[in-house]
Amino acid sequence: MERASQFHLLPTAWRGEGVQQFADEYRRAFAKAEQLYIVSAFLTEWPSALRLNPKCKEFRLIIGTDFGTTRRAAVESVLRWLPKRFLGEVRAFNLRGVNFHPKAVLWREASGRRYLLIGSSNLTRAAFESNVEANVTVGLSSEEYARTLTWFRRISDCSLEVNDAWLGKYVEAPIRSTQGGGKRKPATSDEARPPPVFDLALELTNKADRNLFARHLRARRAQRAYFDAHSKMPLLDLVRTAAAKRRWLEDDNVAFYNGLSRLWAGSETTRLGGLQWVMLGKHADHRELARSLVEILDAHLADQDDTVAREKDRLHALGVSTRGAVLTELLCHLLPTRYPILDDPVRRWRSQVGFDRGVGGSEGARYVRLAEAMRAALNDPGPRALGLETLAELDTLIWFRFKDA
After folding, report:
1. Could you tell me how far CA 303 lies from the centroid of its own chain?
2. pTM for this one?
3. pLDDT tens-digit series, residues 224-262
4. Could you list the residue range(s) of the whole structural domain that residue 305 is in?
5. Are 24 and 8 in contact (CB under 8 A)?
6. Most exposed of 38, 104, 143, 244 (fewest Cβ within 10 Å)?
7. Is the pLDDT of residue 129 over 60?
8. Pair 183, 216 in one domain
9. What average pLDDT does the chain have?
């Protein structure tokens, strides 16, 4: 039986109630959730006494940084609290020119019941104890939950991992006192609003550059269109057939190499990157590459990034040399809004932006971090003004800006 909607009108003392139902609702969500997603416009304190369900399978917290209101100490507190299995699941909204103001908790319990807690309260002590706030918890149908989760993931694609690189660049707003002494609070004037922590915008302000880039963009779109029309389905057949083979002989490896060359690598009509693979990747274990591609393509969207990282690390452990340019270009062709090509201009862009500088992590984790940063960049005003729709197109802009760096 679904619970009735729960209203949380704060402070409870105003209604003659002593029980902090709102805090209890947070505790319930954390204790019972198998999936738990939180967005908060800013974070000034983290309730470290919260206990997350040990059977929780998915967790993500996305915070805002408008006006520098979020406190570094609170971020560090949540990172210490975070269970190791959810390392990297604290994110910061990083979209230039967009106010980030949601306060919501979305969760699903083992019973299959789904809930959304939404209202005016940020993750602050005052929101729980003294502020005048209004919040409500509502039960969701499976369709409503799916719609809300899609909204959340859209926000996630405009966010970056909170890590040492992020903490090293984040600038808090100065704390100032209110008139008459009183409680100290961050400044929140429009003039105090800082830019996003990482500048991913990739704007082209020169008209001649924009015109020249438009020609390169048309060429990239023509490559993608040709691949989808002529190469995609036979290439998928080639990959799935190779992945399913129990015995793999040298002749099979050669046949796969020739098929991949014919369908993709042998022509600039479909190949986005350079020709290095023609020689360097010829003798790699192509069945293992195919197996990784199938695992990634068949993964549920919520698990896809983890699958990419795991498979890239597996190929690294096996010494499969095609895990770099070949795997990432094929992913860029087959999942163009999700994964980028790992080429030299992209590496230069990543180095300049610095969103993972000094953070470390496995080869697979670093590639997924790059993909997330490029998804966020794709949503920024610069790429949007140029009409970019995929990471394959964003790669063209990065190439245009960083090819001679």
Report:
1. 12
2. 0.83
3. 999 999 999 999 999 999 999 999 999 999 999 999 988
4. 207-402
5. no
6. 143
7. yes
8. no
9. 87
pLDDT tens digits along 336-359 = 999 999 989 999 999 999 998 888
In this prediction, residues 120-138 reach a mean pLDDT of 76
Q: What is the CA radius of gyration of the chain?
A: 24
- Assess contact for 321 and 253: CB atoms under 8 A: no
What CATH number corresponds to the domain at position 72? 3.30.870.10
Examine residue 270 and state whether it is found in any structural domain, yes or no.
Answer: yes
The DSSP line for 224-241 is: HHHIIIIIHHHHHHHHHH
Residue 202 within any structural domain of the chain? no
In 146-230, DSSP assigns E strands to 159-161, 175-178, 181-186
What sign for the dihedral angle of Cα 242, 245, 249, 251? Answer: negative
141 with 275, same domain: the answer is no
- pLDDT value at 382 more than 80: yes
Kindly provide the b/e burial profile for residues 295-334, where b requires at least 16 CB atoms within 10 angstroms of the residue's own CB: bbbebeeeebbebbbbbbbbbeeeebbbbbbbbbbbbbbb
Residues 268 and 241 both lie in one domain: yes
Q: How far, in Å, CA of 52 to CA of 111, rounded?
A: 17
Residue 242 and residue 102 share a domain = no
Quote the pLDDT of residue 98. Answer: 86
User: Cα–Cα distance between 380 and 201 in angstroms, integer?
Assistant: 5
Domain count, the chain: 2
Looking up tokens 């996630």 gives 156
Name the burial class of residue 15, with classes exposed (0-12), middle (13-18) and buried (19+) by CB atoms within 10 angstroms of its CB: exposed
In a domain, 317, yes or no: yes
What value does the mean pLDDT take over residues 185-202? 65
